[in-house]
Automatic annotation (TrEMBL):
Protein name: MucR family transcriptional regulator
Pfam families: ROS_MUCR (PF05443)
Taxonomic superkingdom: Bacteria
InterPro entries per UniProt: ROS/MUCR_sf, ROS_MUCR
Stretch list, region Disordered: 133-170
Protein species of origin: Sphingomonas cynarae
Amino acid sequence: MTTETNTVELATELTIAWLGNPNTRTSADDVPAFLQSMYAAVEKLGGTTVETPTEDAAVEYTPAVTVRKSLASKDHIISMIDGKPYRTLRRHLTGHGLTPEEYRARYNLKADYPIVAESYSEARRAMAKTIGLGRKPGQKVEGAEKPAPKAKRGGKAALDAAKETLGTAE
């Protein structure tokens, strides 16, 4: 009985220390749950097993829309969580504590189910190509203009270059 008393006391002391931390913000409703989890952790570390209620029944998630409807538009993807359109689901899923893989698993989607809308992806691709991403070193960007030569700093040559650029000649 002394080991159980020590475990309870240790879990209580750890909980009090946690609540005494000025950076900890919690409500009074969360304290019993935290105390129980602290007790279970101390018991687990002590080598004895604690019977905690496990949730055997898997939660069934019903999608807000069908897969076909979620991909109906090229401009957005409709979320199966809340039924709202998004150009990219990544931030939305992170807000719900999901990764794209977990999202696909939750709603039984194929591994190639897109997370980014098609038109948004194409726009990003075009922008990346115009700034030269994805090209090999030394390869020129298609459709890009040759940059103007840089003027030398100071002196008569810089003044002549500036006048030539502005189109004012003496």
